[in-house]
Amino acid sequence: MLRVLWLLILISATVLGILGVQAENKPYRLIIGFDGVSYGLMTELYDGGYFREFQRPTPLLATFPSISDPNWTLIMGVPPEDSYTKAHFHMIQHDDGSLGKEVGTVINHLTIPPNYEKIFNFKPIGVIQHLMTVTWSQTSALYWIESLSKKLLTEKLPHKHYTALIINTDIISHVSGKKALMEYFKKIEKRLSHLRKDFKKEHGRELEIVFVSDHGAYYNNPISVDFEKPLKAAGWKWSKTLRNSKDYAFVAPEIISFAAFYTRPKEECDLALLMSHIKGVQTSLCSPQKDKIQFFSKNGRVEISIDTHKRTLSYQLLSGEDPFGHDVFFKKARTLTWQEYFDLSFDTNYPYAYVRGWEGFYIAVKNPASVLVSPEKGYVFTNLTLEILTALSGIKSTHGSFEKEESLGLVMTTSKSKEEVFTPSSFYNQYVK
Ligand SMILES: [Zn+2]
After folding, report:
1. Do 357 and 261 belong together in one domain?
2. What is the pLDDT of residues 342-354, one digit of tens each?
């Protein structure tokens, strides 16, 4: 009996030993989140011969709106933020019966870290503060990668993987444009290659690198949507709190091609209809009932019903033409699974727009807007202060809408991935969880 026991102990020890050795030989994973790097830009770099230690980039389709907070939240698997952006309108009930108050400013946007930022191992705060004082391009690229390399080579690493978030790629994209961002990445490539070699020398393991970007960008000088005049002409009033049926609220958090408007209950779809006729607006959305979304464009109106248990969407064209030209997918069956609709619509200009629109109300944030607006390509929502800033610095790219270029971030890895396309949640399930 004793001999059997010894034998068992010996076998277990050997098995554990082998497992232990294997775990150590497995590549160590470094996930680098780059804010706002488009699939198109990285593919262009790759096709130009860069990043050949990596596999070809895979697109990641952002949720709606195609902006940072909702998408990083899903990529990192953390609870949603209060709203789409730091500066927003919060729908609280006042004693006098009026609704809501404006929250935050551009300063909040730059200084309060969102939930997802807190769980990255390599935090951008120190780096970003440093970046504010230096130039965007060369110095900053080298500064963060030096700090990151130092940490990976000298500090005790977390068991699972190491995560780093680099926000300044989005800033470069907005302020300096596509070419500048490509130059930035050319510098990063060499450094990462060195880091992989040094890591192997130091730790005796391969370093697998996974790039992930949360949304894309459309490179242009944007035009701002003038919504105030047409809304005023129709009897609506821009207000700081909502008292009357035709009061609406809007906070411009930054220059983005997306907007969240707020109305009193039951007024949402009237405002959405009106918004859809404004110059530069592609679609406006409201949710008249739970899990039902209406989409308005200049030429038509569609209602989508979502079944979260069956993971399906049911389609109804209420009037005119389909805002995204997606009616063809619902000719045979009015109800499709999310996956079927994803596959059918992915190659259109507005991939997966009907489910992403629902996500904008029910997944993206804790406190959804009354009306969500997705502008036409090249148009943005902003305010006077930001417009003056734009005149000073120049804005070179935008994102936020349903539109494909603005919606496609990417995943790029040094080892093979079997996915052909990612969503923020599927990336979380495969790499972060
Ligand atoms: Zn951005």
Report:
1. yes
2. 999 999 999 999 9
